């Protein structure tokens, strides 16, 4: 690296710690193969004195960057010049206090908040990350990009690629993708490649393809993508009147979000912009519970960056030996080799995190409750409420603590799961359609 810039990339492995220019498109440390962080020399960044200073951006929201729910916090992800920044209006999401859902998880009124990231342009939180990653892609002059996806990544990548005129190829596992998401990738004009395999297979292939062909990679291995996802936390704090909640609950798939949230809070604390770090609860599905098993049973931990690699290697070797393929109705978290595992362990360390796994039946009931009393969400998002219910029962989260659950995707992403739940009476909140003869009296009788 030549003369040190304000923003740069750094390997998360403390034994390596190699640093790289921000303009190098990398997704792994070329020295040791570990994950990379986007880092800043905070002494040279003009950061507001207090978080509430960001509120003044509302007055200038006719400026496209001030309007963006990501870029209005741009001083906290200061890795590229404004001229490269792309925005399609991401991050206009809301934090809703929801007392009915609070009741379902036995919490006091006024304590539970739902962060609806489904309100993003492509219908999931992924847009927070893509606006950042695509700005970086433009900065480095990328003309062609790729991603592996359980669905929402491809939808978001396809939309942003189309908006900035970059060619895009998305890899999906065959038969695993929810229809809403597949429809978006095709509609936004992405070249869609369906691999005979699951997400983990796609993830492996796309890394090789990107290396071979020099394509820009948009999975959450991309450190700049995670910078954008930090802003979900900034908006939760903003919506709480610039106060930090006690808990953040998030579904865990490839573990990009949980990693980004941990980094966000670490940096805010370091900058003196918050005085406490909230705790983090990461929720897996039982059919894709690598993180839960490794953390709770195998005691895998960050350990100042000296992660016990043997535990991970043994775990994955066992998955391979059993030809294990993850399975859950929450397709967005149907992942058994999460690429951000180590960053997530770091986030758990920073936020005194806990990890739980919930069954598909619990996810489906929780999803129905979020639909019945809130704006709805896709199955993976509902794992948060199902997980929160566990943590309340165990007494780990108190009934009067302030909890924000990140609802990661829009309900229309996966209508099949919703229709089947209601029509086939799969849970306690099923609300199936009632068949009626084509006869007025009979119909009126049904309604009464
Ligand atoms: C991508 C995705 C997840 C998983 O997030 P990670 O950052 O990969 O852990 C969860 N829910 C939805 C709706 C998603 O699209
Ligand atoms: Zn390294």
Characterise the protein shown here.
It is a single chain. By secondary structure, the chain is of the alpha/beta class. Among the domains are: 1-45, no CATH class; 94-121 and 225-423, Rossmann fold, CATH 3.40.50. 38% of the residues lie in helices and 14% in strands. The chain is built from 16 helices and 13 strands. The protein has helices spanning 64-67, 99-104, 126-139, 152-164, 179-187, 199-213, 223-229, 231-239, 256-270, 290-297, 309-321, 341-350, 360-373, 379-393, 415-423, 440-447, and strands at 7-11, 19-21, 36-40, 94-97, 112-116, 144-149, 167-173, 191-195, 216-217, 247-251, 279-285, 354-358, 403-407. The protein has a six-stranded mixed β-sheet, sandwiched between helices. A four-stranded parallel β-sheet has the order 8-7-6-9, sandwiched between helices. Strand 6 (144-149), helix 4 and strand 7 form a beta-alpha-beta unit. Helix 3 crosses helix 7 (223-229). The termini are far apart. The relative contact order is 0.13. The mean pLDDT is 96. Bound molecules: pyridoxal-5'-phosphate (PLP) and zinc ion. The site of zinc ion (ZN) has 8 residues, from loops.
